[in-house]
Fold these 3 entries.
Entry 1:
Amino acid sequence: MDVTTILILLLVGAIATYFSGDKLASKVALVFSLGAFGLSLSLLSTYCNGGNISFIANWIDIPKVALAFKADGLAMAMVLLTTALTPLIIFSSFGNSFNNSKNFYALVMFMSFAMTGTFLAADGLLYYVFWELALIPIYFIALIWGNGDAEKRKKAVLKFFIYTLGGSLFMLIAFAYLYSKADSFLLEDLYKLDLTASEQCWVFFAFFLAYAIKIPIIPFHTWQAKVYQKAPTVGTMLLSGIMLKMGLYSVIRWQLPIAPDAAKTYMPVLIGLSIAGVIYGSIVALRQKDLKKLLAYSSLAHVGLIAAGCYTLTLDGLSGAVLQMIAHGFVIVGLFFAAEIIFRRYETRKIDEMGGIRTQTPKFTSMFMILVLASVALPGTFNFVGEFTVLYSLSQVNVWFAILGGTTIILGAYYMLKMFQNSMLGETNAKVFAEVTSNEAITFVVIIAFLLFFGLYPKPIVDLITPSLNEILSNINS
Amino acid sequence: MDTNLALLLLLSPFVGFLFNIFFGKKVSRNVSGAIGTLTVLVSFLMSICFFAQLNQNGKALEIHLFDWISVHNFKLDFGLLLDQLSLLWLLFVTGIGSLIHLYSISYMHDDENMHKFFAYLNLFVFFMITLVVGDNLLVMFIGWEGVGLCSYLLIGFWHKNQDYNDAAKKAFIMNRIGDLGFLIGIFLLGSQFNTLNFSELKVALGGNLSLYTNICLCFAALCLFIGACGKSAQLPLYTWLPDAMAGPTPVSALIHAATMVTAGIFMVTRMNFLFDLTPEVQNIIAIVGALTALVAASIGLLQNDIKKVLAYSTVSQLGLMFLALGCGAYNVAVFHVITHAFFKACLFLGSGSVIHGLHGEQDMRKMGGLRKAMPITFWTMMISTLAIAGIFPFAGFWSKDEILMVAFEHNTILYVVASIASIMTAFYMFRLMYLTFFNDFRGTEEQKHHLHESPSLITIPLVILAILALIGGAINLPGSNWLNHFLEPILATKHEEHALGTHEYMLMGIALAGAVFGILWAYSKYIKQGFVPKQDSEITGFSKTIYNLYYVDEFYTFLIVRPLNSLSNFFRTTLETALGKLVFGFGTVANGLGTQGKKLQTGSIGLYLFAFVIGVLAILTYLFIAQ
């Protein structure tokens, strides 16, 4: 068995969902996505026992493109993130009803398929295909099932589509150039390439444009907040929980090892830019009035720190970044779900129109609170482990990076607690707020359990990713 | 065996937390309170066991539980360290904790969310134990942030009131400013020594250090001290503590007086081997401590809210402790921490008893004459007030006197500042007593009718704490110096012993005379002249500045909060739109080029031919020149 089975299962799941009809669609999607999760777990255990779960076969002869899927610890961590979050996201949407739900859930499954492919692909062109493929379903999900004024939504979503597509084209050009040099798209062959400094620089920044827009790193983030706000919550979760990690993962997998010298040269600039994003995102979040937009900017701040960790080119930085990617994936899905729960009851995303919810719904309040605390990286949550490791790595590069990046500790607490206070606390709201249903609670409990468990015992994940990261680092430093 | 007992010590309050959070609503309030109290009591008993064991064999216990985080060059495990310092802290944290839990059963009985109150209180004790017993800086940091969280939850316990929520948020954020300092300190130490474990650090710092390392150490010590400033409410991060009085009174007693706020002193004492190497930072600590003591005491002179007076008194006393730390007298600071925990917990609980008796009234201008109606509350508070004022032979006399002595040896100015703060303390504490318990009752008839002593669950803890405030000084009487000897193993530099000479007796005499002066001053003003503080609107001049806390909050708002908010608004509206437009700009340019390009496609063959000829000519010219 190898990792292609996960991809096949997800793709089959997408098709099956489409043909299952509107009534059954969500359940079929859930079953298949859970199956994919189970399958990834069993493949993980094979991998951990020393088995080979990678796959390679010829696909196209001219140009030489291979169906290469490399499943090392790092890729498996990201695959698991995807296959774990997908059923969770699907399940969380059981409280919503969508028109044409078969199309909707089929697109969700298809997106999960494309993202998993992106994490696994070890051939440049194959990777590029998956990378772009992931954009299509989210475009339709946001466009068709989104909320707010249709015209404005169309504008925001189109901007996102063209912007990210445009960025990715530079990556395609870089791949074409690399192919002309290596006569192969295979990851290993590209790692072996000996590029001159200026070639590396061009390739590096071509990749950077694609990733900086996807992650996003300021000032390439302008698509983000509006799309997060307009997309249906499932779409926002897919985007923030998994899709933006594609960019971060690609930095580690493709950008840094292919152009290591450029990475070393521009390290301080890139770390600086990423940290500027941390501060900028946090400050913008301070005065946000829309809950989903606030979370979008908090996300901007968090991924800025993750990106900074990646660009330190140290093991701590990379492993902290990966840990934080996983932690952030879970917590942001939980937070967007909390926003969705409020929306289901109050039909608003404006924070001023909330307030006084706590007295009516103690369970929801506690769970929301824990997620807020995880998001501000309270020790004991998984987010702390990631944030601590990243900040530690930054302090090794230059202690000022750690101090500036560390302002997220203060500013993050400020905007998150302010949001929590204004949305949840205060005099009892006149409007009735029903306590979370058990279905809704399950999603929260799973996320919280995950964050708390790995917050105290992150070792399994660290042990899983460290060998792959060391391999990548040896490629960077050789 | 030891591991299991230590785990019991650590986890027992956590079990109480889980019980109360999940089942507290279903059981009766008494059961929920009893379980909350008993789980803390178990920790207290375990602490006594370990304490007895330590006294017998003198060996500190290190327990490795599991690997937690690993960074490149070192591993951080989750381990416990039970030595002299942590056990001392454990004893009074869990001991006073048990008493305050007991007190809360009665105090919070009418609150519908009593189970939550106990849950948070238990969680607090759990995190406080974690803070104290962690064997490395990062485990300490879990506790450090954890107690901050519980403080947040408990200050905002009555969450319908947004002012209380603001106070809670403020406490959390100001603490986090300090926490960033703490983290940076951790990074600096970690990168220098590849460990954060206390015993390993102690060994590493004992070796030969390069100049660069020494500079790093200085910064690390300074950063850690910033952390301590946040948690222990020192200048300039002290303003959250008075606001924190929004929480229920038992919380103020436990968290914001006796235990959590002493975490900064604990940490500095724990890292004494580091601070001993950085005399510059020690000087800063001493100065910050003395200034805090003075500023807070001066604000305390004019406050009318009974809890606010106690809050500023706490800040001021913490300042004195930091002064002692800055002078390198860790044992003296620890001594004062312990005696302060006794009398300040008693004072807060006493004020809670008064507030309880007056159905929520906290303004001393509306109290008075409560002595007769509440004799136990009065006498216990009186003993504690004498202790905090530094009257012989109460506990505070001994510990404060030692602080003044080390300050005198260190620097005369610091000594004078600390002495002035002490005189002020005596004054405002007796002002508090006189306004609350003497003269006639100034409240409503309705209240007067219902005046009564609090129930025994409230008075028993008061009595126990008052006894401790009376005799607590015994743990470190000059001559026996039990505490000093006990703490010796954890201090890197030996603190020389004082034989009592004329010099010392003179200082003691001066301190005592100062305290008596402060008391008489208060007596003449509030008893003899029967003075009652004016209404808020009538306060003028410099008193107004002090009454309004020197406008520090307003200053911070002006300097930090408002600019940050304006910046946020600017980024959110202007800059975001501009950046968005810029991206659209590319689209517009492409669009424009397309529109222009479209015009070239006229369909006229003549024009195409013309362009073709021009193009060929251009290429030919280029080739010609290139050759």
Entry 2:
Amino acid sequence: MKKLNKRHIIDIGSLILRTLFFLVFIAPLLWLVVSSFKQEMNIFKDMGSLSAFIPKDLFLGNYTKAFQRADLIKYVMNSMFYVFLITLFGMIVNSLCGYGLAKLKVPYSKQILKFIIALIIIPFETIILPLFLIVNNFGWVNSFQALIVPFIANCFNIYLFKQFFSGIPDEFLEAARVDGASDLRTFLQIVLPQSTTVFATVFILTFVAHWGDFMWPLIVASDDSVRTIQVGLQFLFTNPPQLYGVILAGLTFSTIPLAIIFLMFQKYYVQSAASSGLKG
Amino acid sequence: MLRWLKKIIVMVCVLSLLVSLLGCAKEEKTGTTETTEGKSTSSSSEEEVILTVWLPSNNESENKVMSEIMDAYNELNVGKVVVEYQFVPRANAFAYEDKISAAVTINQLPDVLMMDGPNVSNYAYSEIIKPITEFFTEDELDDFVASMLSQGTYNGELYALSPSESSVVIYYNKDIIDAAGIEVPMKLEDAWTFDEFMEIVKTVHKDGEVYGVNIAPDYGTGEWMTYMPTLFLWSFGGNIISEDGMTAEGYINSSASVEAMEYFQSLSNYSNWQATPTEFEEGRAAFKICGSWLVPGFEANPDLNWGITYLPYEKTHVAPSGDWAWGVSSTKHAKESADFLKYMLNAENIENFTTIAAKPPTRKSLLNASELWASYPRSIIKDQVINSGHPRPKTPAYPVVTQEFASAAVDLFLGADVKERLDLAASNIDENLQRYFK
Amino acid sequence: MIHKIQHRFHIAKYQKSLLGIMFVLPAICLLFTFLILPAIMAGKYSFYNYSILKPENMNFIGLTNYTDVLQSKAFWKTMTNTFYFVVVVVPFQSSLALLMAILINKKSRITNVFRIGFFSPVITSIVVISILWTFMYAKEGLINNFLSIFGIPNQPFLTSEKQAMNSIIFMSAWQASGYFMMIFLAGLKEIPETLYEAAAIDGANKFKQFIHVTVPGLRNVIKFVVVVTTIHAFKLFQQPFIMTGGGPNGSTQTVVQMIYKEGFQYRNAGYSSTIAILFFIVIAAVSTLIQKLIKDRSY
């Protein structure tokens, strides 16, 4: 009896904790969406109290103005296109590399891995200029190539893949090999289906990371035909005076694709738990 | 439900892919959307010159009138010149300037470009823009206000001119000021001294209810904290940098500069550094020190009972000025660029642009002839533009100077020791000047 | 005969590694072109006086940039600030992320909702988050109003030298923990349920299960998250850039911010590259050290 009580208390405690966390974490998204429907004055009048998070009026003026100022739909399409391709090609290239380093015979694989990890630390801001010169040499300025190709290979993702593939027991792959499967077939038919969580993780994280790109697209792709949403949004920050309602409306709109991508892919977390028979 | 969503997303992805591919294919034929019209009308002529032009993107009405003016130029010059223009976002930091820097490294600057006024010296020093003095006669130049000519001049040559000017003014909340029985100056010679202004700020400030003055804080991230605090510096007889733009020591930390910034610091007792953008509009600040660009927005706000007045002064009347200006790069098409520049700055086009943008025009003839600018509240802005406008310092190291001064100004407003902080700014600026410009 | 077998064996071995190389090569090529090559170019610039606006004036100046940077007070200040940020944020953020992952590592509809909530700051633009927190941290902002209920006086969260960096640390940990929660969660999914059941049968309570099952099971992931969080933390840039501009008194100025400022705003690509190279060396040393430390402790 006493034991049961204790477990109840723990469960309730964890539920309360989770709910508290939830509220604190959801707050900015809530603020963003709620404020984008408020009149400019109300956004800041409410800032000092909880009414900042409570919808007051359903003012659509911010949205009409935002769409008037910039062709947001087109820019979102452009962004979806290039970020999706980075992610897609990235998953192929990086997972192959991670698998090669984890499970195949690659000369100096330990050194290569160390080197790749060391490369993670290069802050992008420090190589913008030389990278720009290279991309210009390729004749890619104002094209989608400039937005996509430099970001396909990603050290962080290679490491992530490598870590997860290393967790797959060798005997498991050995069995497939004995059955006569080639390395590529083993990878495609045995390893891939076991790795939905990693792929979902990489997909979400890569998508999120590149959706927010600003400096690079601004410099290499300012033409209207390849303009991305983050650059397009800057047309709302017309200075001065800045209308925060309009800015927040644009930002809300630009968050929708991310939210959908996340909702779609987080499903795989549940699925893979069911299928997972592997040891970590 | 989620399955449906997924299907839709897949469709959208495929569609967007197709659309983008089609878009690319189409684009190869006709050029970018913004320039289609100009290009398609005149592809037959072989001698036609293509001028590329960059300008900052402002609000939609300003962008529209600028486009119309340039489209009209293309129509006037069918078969001779095609202007391909691009609006570049300024963002809230220095995105436009970063883009120019990047273009310089690969030799792809546009033929004609707009730049923020204080950057003129930096670009002129780096020889990425060319003098435009010879494009204009002396009489033509005489029509421009002194502050604008000064902003565009570097080493005795004119490099850039702007259609519009700006000024810093004092806005006040009429309800609060009237309730306190304060009379507001309506003529430049009646303007408050800084001491008088401080006394008034003190009387209207009510702790926790109404702030004495709002300084439109930008949290230390942009050009504003240089543009605005210079009004104190110059009026007290201080300066950021020497006349030749090469020494900060003894200028930014001179006794006059220190005195000016001490005054600036004392305003912080009656001001909120973390004010929300609408603090003044909500009636929670009696005064607001801000640029002339707020007037149209305030006029459109029926709930706000407001007025404007001249900046206070100490020794001289000074109002910070400056705006984005047209310049010409080291282009092959110097003649066409000059013609385009002169077209953009002719009286008619300046009038068209400044009317829509609600900014003071830089031509005195326009300012003086205009009824709009002759009547309150704009008359005060006009008065300051003509009589007390002062551009920001001219130095090849302007990017360094503005950052160092602005961050010092922020620190002072948050309570740093004035002399110490200005000494630090002086040594930072001089170190950079020493390394790169001497 | 023996010779022949050996030969065939050699070929097989050669083919095997050839296949491995084929797997690895595309990534390596891309990394070389778009990451290593630019980094080498930056390394070259660090020995030059190179102003972006005057590329034709580029001239070799040996180690001058290095001596200049190492003597610059601003450089050491940003270095100290960055180290402080890293040292505080890494343990704080990593344990927060792990706690969150454990809290929602259950299969049910409601945990899905929690997961979405915890991850939402990651998908919300950092610009929005920085603007929102700037106002929440304000003198009359939400947090101060909340604290005043308990009689705590107004705190100068972003406007005092002492608190500004801590405020940014708190906000950053809160914002990024959802990201690393996802990685922990992926790791937790790989720990077989049977291990927990076995531990429960042995009479281990939740805490003991955490110590004896979860932590060892996550060893690789924890190592990974700590290293990556450290590297991420070193790259801090956006939040102070938007919220404080590096102030007050330079207390939130970070190294990457200085690299950006010197390179793009002041247009001194040479000097900026020098800071980048020195910074690169420092992070490489630190992350190697961390990897060593974690390895030693977990065995």
Entry 3:
Amino acid sequence: MTDQTQTPLVQLKDISISFGGIRAVDHVSLDLYPGEVVGLLGHNGAGKSTLIKILSGAYQKDSGEIWINGEKADIQSPRDARDYNIETIYQTLALADNLDAASNLFLGRELVSAAGFVDDVKMESETARIMARLNPNFRKLKEPVSALSGGQRQSVAIARAVYFNAKILIMDEPTAALGVHETQMVAELIHELKKQGLGIFLISHDTREMLELCDRVSVMKNGQLVGTERVGDVTEDDILSMIIMGKKPEKAA
Amino acid sequence: MSDQTSQKSAPGTSNEGFFARFIRETEIDTRLLGMLGALALIWVGFHVYGQLVNGFGAFLTPRNLWNLSVQTASIGIMATGMVLVIITRHIDLSVGSVLGFCAIIMGVMQVNILPQFLGLGHPLIWIIAIIIGVLCGGFIGAFHGALIAYGKIPAFIVTLGGLLVWRGAAFLVARGETISPVDETFSLLGGGPYGAIGSTGSWIIGILGCAAVLGLLIMGRRKRSVHDIRQRPVWAEGFLALVGCGAVIGAVLLVNAYPWPRGIVRRYAESEGITVPEGGLFISHGFAIPVLILMAVAIFMTILMSRTRFGRYVYAIGGNPEAAELAGINTRFMTVKIFALMGALTGLSAVVASARLGSATNALGTLDELYVIAAAVIGGTSLAGGVGTIYGAVLGALVMQSLQTGMVLIGFDAAIQQVVVGSVLVLAVYLDILYRRNSK
């Protein structure tokens, strides 16, 4: 399905990071191609979130290299990551609860008028535009996001990632707080973004969902990569045994 | 009575009361109303108490209210900066001491150092002194901010240390001496008969103020129509315009109703060669210069907080520091900038305070930090972070100063004043907690 002969969008090469003597990520290598969804699976504390936080600039790796579009990239901060068109939807959503949807969507990248003042009207109408696409029921543009439901908050976080024309999208448990209907909307969005040629890293605990949404899945355990498999080649049981036992499925079986 | 009016004035809408509909349509902040109510209560209360107990209600007189406005200036200027500090979940306990230190530095500059080079009474002295004072405050603030942001020392500790350090430093600079007199032009910035802009100037300010009120309302309407947001009804806009302009004109009438004292009029008349008529000469004070400084600071800070990225980031850091960091905001450098701004405003306050006194003493600004923090908190700045307004802090400063002045006027002694001010601070925070719980 994905043309693997082209240059990978992202290559994580031999990435390691430690926190106080604990190897949270231990020599992990991963790659991601345009128009591909790669799922990251593993127990809590397996190092999935830590790994993607290195790519999104929230953490700085101890060793290893990040290559974007075949060139070595230097990502020291979230701002650097954004310069490489990497957008992240964090598990915690990372929203400032006291600000409204527009202020959150444009946080750190406010639209300013010629005089250098923030252009609230423009930002609000842009927010209304993208929200109409993502979540047509979204009305509370003026209220602080603390007044929104879990699903609405999630759509603000997703809108923020989608609005700025990301090439690489990182989604950390995007459906954890959502109901059935909203989960379906996120799945549709992922398909649409895939068609547009984005590369997506997806983190989730829901194995079945991952098999539906992803092209490949990578399993981590105790900071190490157990293996990466094409979803067509494995069953749900294979994945579960990788997560639990930390072993690759037998090819012959 | 209110039930009847609600049914008449809100036909067809819901069964909400007249007052609720009024608040909704005019979009007035209920918190602001509460503060104005508290202020009115304090003012009338002190006046009536004075009338009943002392036989003379001294509070609601042009003279007292004019003095109140001057006394509010110094605390108010600092309170606008404290709002930013508290919004970002920090605190600054050092402002009173920094004020004293900046005042001493400015005093030494204009009395001991600058006259040596420029000559006594040189017109540049006051300007250089102010620049040095504001920079001095700014650098101290930036230093505090750097310790907090990069040294990871809690703001409470850094500024508690600063409270002692800068008070002691102020003593060391001048060996505890009082430095006076300050430069003549400099002293005008503290108010007083000559440090006010007079009747004509006040009317000009008043007209500008009314124009600003109307301009803001019209601009708001235009923006809403461009963006297709529901307009306020015309009666609500009219009401806001009327109240806004009424308040401005009322303030002008008030400051113009307070004449120069007779002695000053006589001296002025002699120097200008005017003969004073039988009934005396009525020369209005008008707005005091420190009050105008406070207004300018409040306008500047309001624009900074609501219309610039800097202000947006201050609120974002207060709401969720981690999210702000992940959004690419340099939160540490922001902390340095916020404390530097607080320090610079403290330096400006030191100008007003020492100019008003006509001298610089190392005790200037003692306990100011408590009044400033109280002003910000009473004005609705949440200690949990993320919430606060500049106008609220200025009103809060007015409330604190009204309490203080009122107690002096009716003859409470210092001990009772301390008890009352301390209790009011605690009560205000408690009311704030109740208000927030109910508005959720």
